[in-house]
Amino acid sequence: MPSEATGFWVGWDGDRAIKAEREYVRVRDDFAVIAEGLQLVVGAYLELGEFASGAEAFTRVSSKINPSIRQAADRARLLPYSNRGKGPELVFEDFLIGKPIAEARLQALADGLRPALSLVVDRSELGA
């Protein structure tokens, strides 16, 4: 731990911020590769009709990387950025927010629930 005499911004004016931004880009890019791979694997299971396997694959991988994503979001929040409302942590937080929704939808497919489509056509739309 730094001493109490060390201010919060000490060390952020030089190399430290540049190094932190470089590390963020590396972690963000690695996360993008993992997320894309997960999307491809789950998508392949769904195309094959293996809904339970797709749900299991998503849950296993996302649960395993969940603590790392939370840590990356917490650290990315400390980076200096100029675009208000578009902090670098949002890349990770969006995944964390969407994860339960995706798990629920995949589990519903695995349990045999299929989304129903409904089509409503008005006479005027038929040109009659």
Structure description:
With 128 residues, this protein is mainly α. The chain has one domain (15-126). 66% of the residues lie in helices and 0% in strands. The chain is built from four helices and no strands. The N and C termini lie far apart (77 Å).
Specify the structural class: mainly alpha
Number of domain units:
1
Total number of strands = 0
Low-confidence runs: none
Measured on Cα atoms, how large is the radius of gyration? 22 Å
Fraction of residues in helices?
55-70%
Total DSSP helices: 4
End-to-end CA span: 77 Å
Average the pLDDT over all residues and give the rounded result.
83
Strand content: under 5%
Which overall shape is indicated by the principal axes computed on the Cα atoms?
A: extended
Based on the structure, what is the oligomeric state of the protein chains?
single chain
Q: Which series of helices and strands comes N to C?
A: HHHH
Major pleated sheet: none
Summarize the helices and strands and which ones pair or pack:
Blueprint: H1 15-47, H2 51-76, H3 90-110, H4 123-126
Helix pairs in contact: 1-2, 2-3
Features:
4 helices, mainly alpha, 128 residues
Give a short overview.
The protein has 128 residues and is an all-alpha fold. The protein has four helices and no strands.
